[in-house]
Design goal:
Helix content: 10-25%
Strand order of the largest sheet: 1-2-3-4-6-5
Number of strands: 8
Shape: globular
Largest sheet: 6 strands, mixed
Mean pLDDT: 92
Order of helices and strands: EHEEHEHEEEE
Distance between the termini: 25 Å
Structural class: alpha+beta
Length: 168
């Protein structure tokens, strides 16, 4: 969810593709994977937030969902300060993972991320993998600082990622 003290102008809930060959019992209990697109009125500008939760277990479905999310991101990134964040369920250390496309995308920053010393976000009890990210458009957003927060104990099964920024 997006919680904001700033006014929200638009909101769109995009349901991403489901696992195509799932058994009926898995499909019945399937947790919908989403992209939430919100325009926030911030400092006299509209900032686009894209909050995602991608497929955890089926790589092919996650790749398709990632492609859908990238299309949404590309639709906004040249015209608005844009932040793409959430649970990508894609491992930073896996050179074949779909997240590598965003990690290497020109003009896109990644908060609280150092490829030489990756801060893990999953699981929150004993973090062993980085699967949660905050990406932003470098041409319109100035990154101030960021970190993976681990002082909240187990508020979730993931650790949150924090980013401080200002608009250019």
């Amino acid at each position: 969810s997006v919680l904001s003290k700033y006014p929200l102008k638009e909101h769109q809930r995009v349901v991403l593709q489901r696992v195509a060959n799932a058994s009926f019992y898995r499909d019945v209990f399937y947790l919908e994977r989403l992209a939430q697109v919100v325009k926030v009125n911030f400092q006299d500008e509209e900032v686009v937030l894209i909050n995602v939760h991608l497929e955890a277990f089926d790589k092919a479905t996650r790749a398709h969902q990632f492609k859908e999310v990238l299309t949404i991101f590309n639709r906004y990134k040249n015209d608005f300060p844009t932040i793409l964040l959430g649970d990508f369920n894609s491992k930073a250390r896996d050179k074949e993972a779909v997240i590598q496309k965003l990690l290497s995308m020109k003009g896109v920053g990644n908060a609280a991320f150092n490829a030489d010393n990756i801060a893990n976000t999953f699981d929150s009890k004993s973090p062993f993998e980085r699967i949660d990210y905050i990406f932003y458009t470098k041409n319109s957003i100035e990154y101030i600082s960021g970190k993976v927060l681990n002082e909240f104990e187990q508020a979730s099964d993931h650790l949150p990622v924090l980013m401080d920024f200002k608009l250019k």
